[in-house]
Design a protein that fits this description.
single chain; 499 residues; Aldehyde Dehydrogenase, Chain A, domain 1; seven-stranded mixed β-sheet; six-stranded mixed β-sheet; 37% helix
Length: 499
């Protein structure tokens, strides 16, 4: 029997364990789908059902958009920056209080390690605090265009922002788009990824508990992408779409969005360059993390390790040793360094890539699905390294979204840059060298939105982030990250003498 607790239906599916049925959040209310249908989320470590979410229809998404549009036009949200800052600080405090419980659910829902989940949630608290300050500092500018005129250019919110968030880093990516959009004064409609809808809707519940957010300013609807996601992207009452996910779907979203503003973060195949003068110990340690954090399921994963020929063999040897020491298992195990893939589909897809790699190159380590009592019910793949693949191999050219690292060899700096830029993607990259001039030269030549020097995975709320080429358009974080959700308006005054 189901009972309604704080707007969320709670049922029991396993004796002694709680399995929640999450409702849609529309116009300040928790509502079930008219279809009466739900879908399940599972723990990828053992395939146990951890919760259910609404299988919504297009009409429910339209209601959410209508609620957001009304709230934007009729509440004080867009004009009261102090209110927006207050709401974010209150939410930051609440998120901090609930972080440990959320981290556990995050791990169960996504397969990420509990340590990764905690780090991400801590980062989300910082995101809220950062944009609480930015909300009160959205400045325009003044211009003297002529002796008898004064112009001011102001930044205004766009209106309703639709956000389609991914299953990789579902909380951080949701906050990265929702928080600056709200800070700028917009209303938001969220369509979370179905695989990780449990943790996404659990976080939306925190938003609903902060009274400073006006009714209808935040809405969230779960369901199939081709129904609710496409309805959100195509709606004439949505002023901007922010999508994070794969390139093919991103192109479809952009087509549906037509003339509205679009921000896209798409696939990556990120290069990680090691020159022969690098601190090899530090580079190898960071490169293992870059390749296998979150089981390699991030677009910014360091999926291509490009190594100078004079240190190639030594680097491969060290990478093999370090990779084989990684502990793989349930993310709830505090000692585990890599968890499962998020779905059976991803598992099968990654294994297909591995079989191709075995035929085209040299397998250094891994290359198999993990088996045994702790692995059989989950989607675990051993961290895998290949060398000797042709440059046009799909393992080199395509995002695998799994723990598969490709190691390539280069001779000269020119060769390194050519290999690094040799895919259609351009999200992030890294360079390892003690030569400062070389680091600057290579960084300037890299076709990527971010270049790290002698480090990896350094992302800050203060610094802009985004891709180029097929990795997307637009920028998150920093000042550009909030300006992305605004538009400029020119207001001109005639100041000539009267009479």
């Amino acid at each position: 029997m189901a009972t309604l607790v704080e707007g969320v239906l709670e049922t029991t599916h396993v004796p002694g364990e709680l399995c929640r049925t999450y409702l849609n959040f529309i116009d300040g209310e928790w509502l079930p789908s008219a279809s009466g249908k739900t879908f399940s989320m599972i723990n990828p470590a053992d395939q146990s059902i951890i919760g259910h979410a609404q299988q919504s229809n297009m009409e429910e998404m339209r209601k959410a958009i209508q609620a957001a549009d009304w709230a934007f036009r009729n509440s004080e949200w867009r004009s009261n920056s102090a209110l927006r800052a207050k709401a974010m600080m209150e939410l930051a405090a609440l998120l901090s209080e609930e972080a440990e419980a959320l981290a556990r659910l995050y791990t169960i829902n996504s397969g990420r390690t509990i340590r990764e989940a905690r780090t991400e949630l801590t980062g989300c608290v910082d995101t809220l605090q950062y944009y609480a300050g930015v909300a009160r500092n959205l400045f325009g500018r003044s211009i003297d265009p002529a002796p008898d005129a004064l112009s001011i250019v102001v930044r205004e919110p766009l209106g309703v922002v639709g956000i389609i968030s991914p299953c990789s880093r579902p909380v951080a990516m949701m906050f990265r788009e929702m928080v600056p959009a709200l800070a700028a004064g917009n209303a938001v409609v969220l369509k979370p990824a179905s695989l990780t809808a449990a943790i996404s809707m659990e976080v939306v519940e925190l938003f609903s508990k902060v009274s400073a957010f006006p009714k209808g300013i935040i809405n969230a609807v779960t369901g199939r992408g081709h129904l609710v996601g496409e309805t959100l992207a195509a709606s004439p009452n949505v002023n901007m779409i922010s999508f994070t996910g794969n390139t093919v779907t991103g192109q479809r979203v952009a087509e549906l969005a037509a003339t509205k503003k679009v921000a896209l973060e798409l696939n990556g195949k990120s290069p990680n360059l090691i020159f022969d003068d690098a601190d090899l110990g530090k580079a190898v340690s960071a490169s293992v993390m870059a390749a296998f954090l979150t089981s390699g399921q991030l677009g910014m994963t360091g999926a291509r390790l490009i190594v100078q020929d004079t240190v190639f063999d030594e680097t491969v040897r060290l990478m093999k040793e370090a990779t084989e020491k990684l502990k793989v298992g349930s993310g709830l195990d505090e000692s585990c360094q890599m968890g499962p893939l998020m779905s059976k589909y991803l598992l099968e897809r990654v294994m297909e890539y591995i079989e191709t790699g075995k035929n085209e190159g040299t397998l250094i380590t891994g290359g198999y699905r993990l088996r045994g009592p702790e692995f059989d019910k989950g989607f675990f793949v051993a961290p895998t390294i290949f060398t000797g693949l042709p440059d046009d191999s799909k393992l080199v050219q395509e995002e695998i979204a799994g723990p598969v690292l490709v190691v390539q060899k280069f001779h000269s700096e020119t060769d390194a840059i050519e290999l690094a830029n040799g895919t259609r993607f351009g999200l992030v990259s890294a360079v390892w060298t003690r030569d400062v001039n070389r680091a600057i030269r290579v960084a300037k030549a890299m076709e990527a939105g971010t270049v790290w020097i002698n480090t990896y995975f350094k992302i800050y709320n203060q610094a802009e982030f985004g891709g180029c080429k097929a990795s997307g358009i637009g920028r998150a974080n920093g000042i550009d990250g909030v300006r992305e959700f605004t538009q400029s308006k020119h207001i001109n005054f005639d100041v000539s003498p009267t009479g």
